[in-house]
Design a protein that fits this description.
mainly alpha, two-stranded antiparallel sheet, 15 helices, homodimer
Chain lengths: ~290, ~290
């Protein structure tokens, strides 16, 4: 674990700097730039862009392109957090250890900052140094995962499920869309910055699916047993809101077992890459054991 | 005027049907689809897609591509209206003769419906039947006009200018961004669905600029002297909100004169196209004389 934690720390710092540079280089109305930067540059684990980069490296692809794609994914992830935290949605006051965007800049500006991050993500993707045909495929992959058959579908299901009983199947569907789709896009877009065969593509897809599941179960567990100072957001929020979660439906022990099983499956799906996928394999352990 | 009104009516009906087909063909979570369709398919003048189509026809380009691009622009325009009407923004209760999206579906769903329309616009653009290189240029043009150097910049300036005195120069800048940028994208993306030389490109750019200005001054005038039943939204909203407008800054007469001057300039910029640009020329008169 020590090895992967150092590696993640380095990559995270590198991405933080890169995102800062990208924002500094953009001509944006000052009030809007401030609101966008506040959430974009407030830390975060940067797991999505790191997944893009690690996958691209595994396949010996164009890491410059992967870095930019990863940044675009972080723009999209941040937009979804800002809109998700709004009073009309999850109504969260804290995010990444600071006040939510709308509490600092007002709801109107928070809505626009989210809109702007989504729009500028496409600007970044258009500038990725890959042939136009490949660039379009990449954008298509990300649109699909962030759109009505991915993240947005999950957010809508989540909104509609509030204060209503849902079963495990529905919970899994919500998570697969809300979190899993963008995880998958992160990994597969790393593959699109390189060349890979159908078998490798399927293996990565399977890896993404199980890693996303691991991530989400652990996320639910941390909301029950986590440390809010480490998490940077209040714990117990799901329970307070009457939200369905893995621990609420399965109990702590069974949830933990499911997370471990998903993690094992994620690691296993990398078998065809042998030693070359060691970082992606260690990342599974990190996701499983994380405390924030 | 009769000729252009019939033509616009036909095109509008055609686009309404096309947008209905596009929505029917998309696999979208039912609650979200309903909220998106409510605003997208609620009429509207469809001026942006018609501009795309007319420009493409003028240059004898790929009208199938232009039609799809026009639909994407209507998705983006509708998203901006939904978010603009939210309580945290303009707080409008009516739009296109019906209750605002958030009053029917709740604020959370309205935010997501806007997000979804923006995201799906890119899906539509990716499917435009043009070579990938051209498709990327097209998406780039639209991202720029909808983004932080276009429409979003205008919305932010508008938000920040509320209850503050602004002068004519600032007002023009807000309008150029908030409305003009997407008008320009509509016209120039029509040109990108065809071939045109630099002189024609500049002429169309100039036309877009002056047409956008005409449109906006008339919009401000209609908020003072218009008929709310024709407009489908309440009049007097700008005054109520203490918003700067052309009539507030220049008076009704001078505003009207400026609109006429801009309209004449718009028509004049089409000179190089001679008779071929007759529809675009008549469209200027329609925008100038419209009552809704």
């Amino acid at each position: 674990m020590q090895g992967i934690e150092n590696l993640l720390d380095n990559y995270r710092r590198d991405f933080d700097r890169y995102l800062e540079e990208l924002m500094a280089a953009q001509k944006i109305q000052p009030g809007l730039k401030k609101a966008m930067s506040y959430s974009l540059l407030s830390g975060g684990k940067r797991i999505r862009p790191i997944l893009t980069l690690l996958t691209c490296q595994l396949l010996e692809g164009n890491t410059g392109a992967a870095r930019r794609v990863g940044a675009a994914l972080e723009f999209i992830h941040t937009y979804s957090l800002i809109h998700d935290d709004l009073p009309a949605m999850d109504d969260d006051d804290f995010r990444r250890g600071q006040y939510s965007n709308h509490l600092v800049f007002g709801e109107g500006m928070a809505i626009l900052a989210g809109d702007a991050l989504l729009t500028q993500a496409f600007q970044l993707l258009l500038e990725v140094e890959l042939p136009a045909e490949r660039r379009c495929r990449l954008i298509g992959l990300i649109v699909e995962s962030a759109g009505v058959q991915g993240m947005l579908a999950g957010q809508v299901m989540d909104l509609e499920a509030e204060n209503r009983e849902i079963d495990l199947e529905e919970l899994q569907l919500i998570h697969r869309n809300k979190t899993g789709a963008l995880f998958q896009a992160a990994i597969l877009s790393g593959a699109l910055c390189a060349e890979c065969n159908e078998q490798e593509w399927q293996a990565l897809k399977n890896y993404a699916d199980k890693l996303g599941l691991t991530f989400q179960i652990v996320d639910d567990l941390l909301d029950v047993i986590g440390d809010s100072s480490k998490l940077g957001k209040e714990v117990g929020q799901d329970l307070k809101r009457g939200k369905a979660t893995y621990p609420a439906l399965l109990g702590l022990k069974e949830s933990r077992q499911r997370a471990e099983r998903a993690a094992a499956q994620a690691r296993k799906s990398l078998d065809i890459f042998a030693d070359r996928a060691e970082s992606l394999r260690e990342l599974v352990d990190f996701v499983l054991e994380r405390s924030s």
